[in-house]
Backbone:
């Protein structure tokens, strides 16, 4: 049984893109070699920021064939999770801290046809997922406190990646490990080495002087970490 996808995936976060040109930014991602588009949905309640919602995801879906990875930073995610799949999201992740009924919400995402993920804030232990293994397709580990792009990477997440990697090997049940926040050239290889399969990068891609070279640089660091 394969526990990891064949090669690591880069998911640039559209939160750092130019919102007046989202269609072009998606075309840039397709050309750059990035494999996934990360979409940060914030409600101003779970996190102190409001970003984008269902109509924008529907528009993104029409503009690209890249998988859309919708990271829901919202309270009561059961109310909207399946709607994001219907709007065109391929992966939908919900925060452990936002939902007392994770099992139910993950099942709703899968039933709607999406890949279901659980997100852990920096302060939330990996152990909170031991009784859910098999019920999610991926885990998204936050390496910053969610809410904003451009924050500093919290290195302690590396140990959480290692522990999750050990957990999936021990159980023999495959799931992806994704890491989000402050990811860049300095930590990409180390994260992949620790067991991460997918890295989100916002500022490191879209605020780079040369975004295309930034994607190429990150992908090559990630390949070196394998
Ligand atoms: C933070 C978001 C991240 C963010 C990443 O709440 O979940 O996806 O956009 O941006 P960078 O890579 O700039 O930290
Ligand atoms: Zn995110």
Residues:
């Amino acid at each position: 049984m394969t526990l990891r996808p064949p090669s690591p995936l880069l998911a640039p976060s559209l939160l750092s893109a130019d919102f007046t040109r989202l269609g072009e930014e998606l075309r840039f991602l397709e050309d750059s070699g990035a494999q996934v588009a990360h979409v940060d949905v914030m409600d101003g309640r779970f996190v102190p920021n409001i970003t984008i919602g269902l109509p924008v995801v529907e528009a993104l879906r029409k503009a690209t064939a890249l998988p859309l990875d919708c990271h829901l930073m919202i309270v009561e995610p059961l109310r909207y999770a399946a709607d994001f799949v219907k709007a065109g999201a391929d992966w939908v992740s919900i925060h452990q801290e936002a939902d007392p009924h994770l099992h139910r919400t993950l099942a709703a995402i899968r039933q709607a046809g999406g890949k279901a993920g659980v997100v852990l804030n920096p302060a939330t232990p990996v152990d909170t997922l031991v009784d859910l293994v098999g019920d999610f397709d991926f885990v998204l580990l936050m390496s910053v406190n969610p809410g904003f792009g451009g924050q500093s990477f919290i290195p302690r997440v590396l140990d959480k990646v290692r522990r999750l990697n050990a957990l999936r090997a021990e159980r023999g049940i495959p799931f992806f490990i994704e890491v989000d926040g402050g990811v860049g050239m300095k930590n990409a290889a180390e994260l992949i080495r620790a067991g991460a399969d997918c890295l989100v990068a916002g500022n490191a891609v879209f605020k780079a002087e040369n975004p295309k070279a930034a994607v190429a640089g990150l992908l090559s660091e990630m390949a070196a970490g394998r």
Remarks:
- Residues 110 and 162 are 26 Å apart (CA to CA).
- The first helix runs from residue 22 to 32.
